[in-house]
Design a protein that fits this description.
By secondary structure, the chain is α+β, with helices and mostly antiparallel strands. It has two domains: about 1-65, no CATH class; about 90-165. The chain has helices spanning about 1-15, 25-40, 55-65, 70-85, 145-165, and strands spanning about 95-100, 115, 120-130, 135-140. Helix 2 (about 25-40) crosses helix 3. Mean pLDDT is about 85; it is low at about 165-168. This is Transposase.
Length: about 170
């Protein structure tokens, strides 16, 4: 599933590069390193030596995040899981939820707010899941943002993500 996407990404990048013949990095090993970092939570510079250098892995991760490659892989994986569960690839229904969370005192005040109903100073995380419980989208806002406003934002973003990706 990953190889065709990463191969296409590399081919697109090589069209605009100078092709000076540098060392070719194994993109699968880069992805394995990113998955290792995600799973373990270790800092980039503590990446084991079995993987490419942490600076290389970080530069690929940054490029893939910026151009949407990571998101495309996530959407493909989501579709595969739905199809294996006997569902259509595209979700047709979703569930929204929000939770206010306290923040540390060191968090900048302009990124937090007060949830008046729960009397919590912090942030609010709002999610959308499909009927299988698979995560579709997450946004983090100040706790003062209403659930209705966060829900509207989630639904707009969700519609854009899932209708734009139909050709993937």
């Amino acid at each position: 599933m990953i190889e065709p996407t990463l191969t296409a990404w590399r081919a697109e990048r090589q069209k605009t590069s100078l092709n000076l013949g540098g060392k070719v990095t194994d993109l699968r090993e880069v992805m394995n390193a990113i998955l290792f970092l995600n799973r373990t939570g270790v800092p980039w510079r503590y990446l084991p030596h079995d993987f490419p250098p942490h600076t290389t892995v970080f530069s690929y991760f940054s490029a893939w995040t910026a151009d949407g490659t990571i998101e495309k892989l996530g959407v493909r994986l989501h579709r595969m899981v739905r199809e294996q569960a006997g569902r259509t690839a595209e979700p047709t229904a979703c569930v929204l939820d929000a939770q206010s969370v306290k923040t540390a005192t060191s968090v900048p005040t302009d990124t937090q707010g007060t949830d008046a109903g729960k009397k919590i100073v912090g942030r609010k995380r709002s999610i959308v899941v499909d009927t299988l419980g698979l995560l579709l989208l997450v946004i983090v806002t100040a706790a003062s943002v209403s659930d209705n406003e966060a829900g509207k934002q989630l639904l707009r973003s969700n519609r854009i993500t899932w209708s734009a990706e139909r050709t993937v």
